[in-house]
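Batch job 17 of 40 flagged for manual review because the log was empty.
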Amino acid sequence: MADAVTNQAEPGDGAGHRQPGAVGADPSTATVTVTTPVVLSPEVARKRDKTFRDMLLSVGLIAVVVLLFVGLNGGFTFSPGHPDDSAPAPTADAVGEFAKANRMVPFKPAVPKDLPGDWHANSAAITNPDTVAQGTPLSVRGGWLTPGGAFIALVATNAEPSALLRSEFDQASTDAGTVKAGDADWTVTTGVRSEVAWYRTAADGITYLITGNADELAFRALAASIAGA
């Protein structure tokens, strides 16, 4: 009697078990994924287009307002990596500050006159006695830019020269002789960095200081502007 032979299929080998979705698989066990396209209704599509159009109009309106504001305020320049040397220098009434200084400080300084016409006054200030820090000299000052881009300033105070120099330069100054300019003798001393400073005390006790990085001709012109003080 012949021996009975039984073939047993291993799981997943295709003989006794078919994987779902394989060729020849039982359709009842197959997995089918159906993707349904999203279709916007005409009303929803119109609202989406209107929202996008409104956003573009808002951005455009903001851009126009910004450009108008910049144009009305002198425009702008772009200089990556470099300072903007084309921007106009500020303007100040330096001579006017000296003229009205005695309304705020207890002395009346000389008012500069006949200054070079191509100088540009760009700074001016009078010390406020009510807010100044204790020990700071009361003073009036004006600053000018020369055509070559150098800066020169005139300071007047009723304090001692040593107090003024200490306040201005925050360091000990070294006198280096005298120079005659504007019919007066000025003491030449060191300023900040490589700058030079001239100072003198008038007969009324007011001390004048000229400082900046301008050349000697500019120093002499400013000294001459208060000649007689």
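Reviewer: the log was empty due to a logging misconfiguration, but the result itself is present. The domain at 94-130+137-225 is CATH 3.40.1000 (Protein Transport Mog1p; Chain A). Unflagging and moving on to job 18.
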